Amino acid sequence: MSRKGRPDPIVGALIRRLIQNAAREMGITLIRATRSPVLFEARDFATGIFDRHGRVLEQHQYLPLMAFCLGPAVEAVINAAGANARPGDVFIHNDPYRGGTHAMDVAVVRPIFRGRSLIGWAACKGHMMDWGGPVPSGYNANARSRWDEPLRIPAIRLYIGGVRSDETWRLISTNVREPDIVEHDLEAMVGSTEIGGRRIAELVDRFGQAAFEALADAWIASTRRQVRQFIRGLPRGRYSGASEVVDSLGSSSRIEVAIDIVNSTMRFDFTGTGPQTETFVNAPDTVTRGGVLQCMAMIIGSGVDYNAGFAAPFKVRLPAGSILSAVYPAAVGYCLHLTDQVSEAIFRALSQAVPERVIAGWLQWGTTVSGTWRGREFSTPLFFPSKGGGGATKGADGYDYIGSIRMAGALESEDVEMFERVHGWAEIQELAYWPGSGGRGQWRGGLGSFCQMLLSGDDMQIAAFGTGRDAGAHGLFGGQQSPRSRMELTLPDGQLIDVPAMANIGGIPPGTVLRKWNTGGGGFGPPSRRARRRANDDLRAGYVTQRTRRP
Amino acid sequence: MKPGGLILGVDVGGTFADVICVGPGGLTAHKTPSRPDEPGADVVHGLAAVATDLGLSDVRELLARTDFIFHGSTVATNTLLTSSGARVGLVTTRGFRDIVEMRGGRREATFDSHMPNAPPLAPRELRHEVVERTDRDGAISERPSQSDVDTAVDALLEGGAGALAIAFKHSAVNPANEAAAAEWVRARAPGMFVSASAELSRRPRLYDRTSTAVVNAYVGPPTTAYVNLLRDRLMDLGFTGQLLIMAGGGGLMSPTEAARVPVNLILSGPAAGPVAATLSMSATGPRHAILVDMGGTSFDVSVLRGGVVETTTSHDVNRYRIGLPMLDIHTIGAGGGSIAAVDSAGLLSVGPASAGAIPGPAAYGLGGLDPTLTDANLVAGYLNPSAVLGNARRLSRPLARRAVTRIARRLGMSPEACASGIRAVANGSMVAAVREMTVGRGLDPRTLSLIVGGGAGPLHGAEIAQELGIRTVIIPSHAGVLCALGMVASDVEYESAVSVVRAMPDIDRRALRRKLVAVRDQLRLRLIAASVNPGQIVEKLLCEARYEGQFHELLVSATLDELTGGNQARLADRFHVAHESAYGFRSDTARVQIVNVRVKQTSPLPVPARRKIQQARGGLRLVRIGGRQVFVGSGSTPVDTPVLAAVGSGSAASETRSTAPGPALIDLATTTVFVPAAWSFRVTSDGDIRMTRRRPREGAA
What CA–CA distance (Å, rounded) separates A217 from A223? Predict the structure, then answer.
């Protein structure tokens, strides 16, 4: 230590690098060793390193929003059992009402010890391919309460003092549909935290605990300073925004946020937001807080770290029992998908304060298909036919075919040839941009997509969950709304099903054709101000058509 | 071979053209500035320098004595990086023309809403669809019509396409439809560069294959023009030997092959590094090693297992996907030119920003004010201030010190301590990169040796090794021109693949055998056309395999009999073992799925030529020429460190068997080696410098 409480600038730089690397190595382990595509292919997980107080030092955003939801899981474990944690313990947690998201997202959290003293935590959280409950994959649009959703787990131990708690594992595998794969993936997650823990213990061995903690304090403090300085550059005041979401029973809920920018703090008050619904369209507060942080990450842009210092200047007030901070016994399966509307409300509010940094609407409509193919059951999320366009912002068109805002382009969708060869029940007949699907504007919304698939499985079921079907993505500052999404099933007998925004449709026979139009992003600024050159390029390339091909 | 024939290796990079000449008098190396403005001129300049060195009258005389020229070029890489390729027109299956632009929906900067998509190399108005259908098993349910294809080609030409690409869905399994269309396209657009996806790759993945065909067409015209120009130029100068071009996947190819698959030239320079490393591994050297190659701007890491670097099948270069085997080389922005700064947390950071060649480090005196790693090495005493770079540039210690002082003040340290700190932080980044390539893939670096090359690498190699717990470091002979050396030691190598995507018990073995034999015969014809050593062709089969349901494939070697005869169990077992060693577990109940079978044929250099290269490497004798004051670690008093230099290279009796203790600095023609105090070193009979850790290591791995 050069000065009291200040890290040596060189030792500090080395420690910071080792922490970042540990979180990354944890992620590589998961990608390489897991067996369900939602983890190794869609990378629907996050990894992180925390100090002994549970403050996040480094989170690796494989799925950006999930990374912001990892801290609350660690906090939940510390609150429930932190004082009793012993070397070799490994916790599991997914309780939506205490720091969790929807029950399919499971966190594995490990205290890191050096001798008998706690020095930090290593954690990862991933979307399990199945976690029990009434429907495969967990998305149950008909859920009315907790009891229609997958298994709920408080902070309990998978390993106790280094010994595998076989009873816990047995309890879990007895309650899920694909016990082999789920157990395998959980073991990979345990392995991931072991690697993270080992790396931190090694660096503390080498540089000492005092140097590690001095770096942690200084790193968090400097990020906090950086964010506070950014906020100080914003115009003070109170800014309000709202959005709406329609649940699976067709009722509309309002989301309201008032953002106060005071000195170097921003307060997000969601008072006025509607009460939790009787459907699965609800989110635990963790998701809303994560959504706030992700919006601010997008507003600030690159060049900042996402440790505990990043979150510190943002205060979030959530009325308990609202659709954005649901409490027991609300169903919360829809969960992270509400980020689309949370972001809309926040960006609408901030459009008054920082018009040059906000982003127009950005929606996603998710789909999974399950059924039987040649006697084997399958349940597959469809990422490639669920990617829409990103919202436009000042100075840039929205990003084409990027997917939901909470993924922010972090995941690459499945290749059509590989998908067909792995999934015998699917034939992809078209996957292309949907011309004209970006909201018009001075800056155009990113393009959405069109997909047509022939489904040949037996007794298939489709789950639909998301938005865009009943209203397109909103524009900002005179930018236009994007067209509405649409999903239709043409059964072999010619019957046409217009799929509702949120539904589980069963009994789909082989030979059914699925057609899906995913809307693009909202436009930014009046279309009349679009540069002539850009407008011409759009027409020539056919990104825009004279008349949008309506589904 | 001509008696006393020479072998030349020419590696043209962004800043320097490195030339190596292997002849009866040993090995000569030269660095001359590269000339992107006048392609080919730098090659001739380099050759002229070598001719002078050998006491020959001119390039003609040099070429008259030369058997082989092995060449790596950045022409294709630069075409892609500077967006200066052809306007590509694409013909593809109806319904899929946007796949190549959608790029799977990835945005590389997650939270940057201003990041635009990568501009398509084949603009949307130049992507035309035709009706045709090949299903996933290769059955053709609809043939394309010639009139549709002709119409598409006419429209593309009308629209100003300067090169054409064709990619049909599932052409990896059965290319018949695509091949028919390609024939029509070539007939309709004679003289136009045309690339068809299945001619380049037989791997399933429509995006990868389409993008590969488009990138190939994009870099095609300028790359082909360059290769032809160089060949003509050399012929005009009387060269009658053989010109071979280095490929990004490792191995050499004929100019004809390079003109057919110019995308193979992308990243062709760095691909030669591992071959040079194998020279230090053969015979007495280690079986497995990590290679690091550090130049002015980048630090490349690769892992050699049994002397072989793994290849990846999918690679993004400048955001464009290339679905061809490329050597698995991990690159980070850490080199001599990496800039040191104080970040918002008050911590020292180094790179990835680089001062490049211009202005370069402050010590160059070309106007650079930012302190770089090279400046730190100079200030801390590791570099010789009177060292002369390839283009006769001296280093200025006062300028370096002034630059380092600027940030040292802000950190409240002396310039020397700050310089040591810059070195430590840069070493930390390099250690992280090595860790990612080893631990991140289930390898324990402590069991491997570290081979270090590049102009800047040998100053840091031992310290990186120490931090990783590695006990042996090898600085190959001519480490400063590692890639040019690798080129002269490479073999001609062609590769193709047969797509399977079936669990092993479900494989139609007869059909697979038929396909493999066909691919083998076709490869052999291409290889014989390159005719380096037609008498000797070595063949290897490699399976890309995984457990059913997995996404990532592992490579396992196989024989034709194991794949198509009765020995499948042995192959499956080899996969289980490989999986366990890579990821820590095996799953005996899961079925093993073969995704692709790669067929790789190699025509090795004639034995006399190879022997000559091995012999030419040797002959390094070191003598002490003085000492330098070196600041080690955080110490504030310098350590007097002996400095050694090479004398009388080329004499056969110069083998140094004795081991000397560190600390020491060894000033060589193209690089400087640092031997820390806890290490000792010796010169091997091959002219390599081998360092070993003396005391048990301290600190963690």
Answer: 10
Residues of B239-278 as b/e, b for ≥16 C-beta within 10 angstroms? bebbbbbbbbbbbbbbbebbbbbbbbbbbbbbbbbbbbbb
Nearest by CB to residue B125, choosing from A9, A218, A540, is A540
Q: Are B3 and B13 in contact (CB under 8 A)?
A: no
Residue with tokens 């490479």: B490
Contacts of A543 in chain B (CB under 8 A): 124
Q: Which residue in A347, A421, A544 has the most chain B C-beta atoms within 10 A of its own C-beta, making it the best mutation to test that interface?
A: A421
How near does any CA of chain B get to the CA of A248, in Å? 28
Provide the percentage of residues in chain A whose pLDDT is more than 70. 98
**Whole-prediction pTM value?**
0.88
Per residue in B514-557, pLDDT (tens digit) is: 999 999 998 888 888 776 666 788 889 989 888 876 666 788 88
- B439 contacts chain A (CB < 8 A): yes
Q: Is the pLDDT of residue A37 over 60?
A: yes
Measured between beta carbons, the chain A residues lying within 8 angstroms of B346 are 6, 9, 218, 222
In terms of Cβ atoms closer than 10 Å to its own Cβ (0-12, 13-18, 19+), residue B37 is exposed
Task: Output helix, strand, coil percentages for chain B, rounded to the nearest 5.
Answer: 35, 25, 35
CA-CA distance, B30 to B19, in Å (whole number)?
A: 5
Task: Say if residue B196 is exposed, middle or buried (CB neighbours under 10 Å; 0-12, 13-18, 19+).
Answer: buried
Q: What is the pLDDT of residues B74-130, one digit of tens each?
A: 889 888 888 899 999 999 999 999 999 999 999 988 888 899 999 999 999 999 999
Q: CA dihedral in degrees (A272, A277, A280, A282; nearest 10)?
A: 20
Instruction: Looking at the complex, report in whole angstroms how far the Cα of residue B557 sits from the nearest Cα belonging to chain A.
Output: 20
Confirm if A167 and A108 have CB atoms less than 8 A apart. Answer: no
Chain segment A337-371, per-residue pLDDT in tens: 999 999 999 999 999 999 999 999 999 899 989 99
Average pLDDT, chain B: 87
Mean pLDDT of the A41-52 span: 91
> Does any CB of chain A come closer than 8 Å to the CB of residue B345?
yes
Close Cβ partners of B56 (under 8 Å, ≥ 6 residues apart): B62, B65
User: Based on C-alpha coordinates, what's the Rg of chain A?
Assistant: 23
CB contact under 8 A, B208 and A31: no
Residue A487 has pLDDT above 90, yes or no: yes
- CB contacts, 8 Å: B425 with chain A: 10, 13-14, 17
Q: How many CB atoms neighbour CB B24 within 10 A?
A: 12
pLDDT at B676: 95
At B695, is the pLDDT very low, low, confident or very high (cuts 50, 70, 90)? low
Task: Tell whether the model's pLDDT for residue B500 goes beyond 80.
Answer: yes
Q: CB of B599 within 8 A of CB of B560?
A: no
Please, what's the b/e burial string for A276-293 (b: 16 or more CB within 10 A of its CB; e: otherwise)? bbbbbbbbbbbbbbbbbb
Q: Which residues of B touch A346 (CB under 8 A)?
A: none
Task: Find residue B484's DSSP bridge partners.
Answer: none
Class of residue B306 by CB neighbours under 10 A (exposed 0-12, middle 13-18, buried 19+) = exposed
Chain A from 159 to 188: CB within 8 A of any B CB: 181, 184
List strand residue ranges (DSSP E) for B516-568, in order.
Answer: 538-547, 554-558
Task: Give A173's pLDDT tier (boundaries 50, 70, 90).
Answer: very high
List A58's β-bridge partners, or say none: A49
Which one of B90, B101, B136 would you mutate to disrupt binding with A, by most A Cβ within 10 Å of its Cβ? B136
Three-state DSSP state, A294: helix
Give the pLDDT mean for B203-225: 95
- C-alpha B529: how far from its chain's center? 25
Rounded CA-CA distance A17/B467 in Å is 14
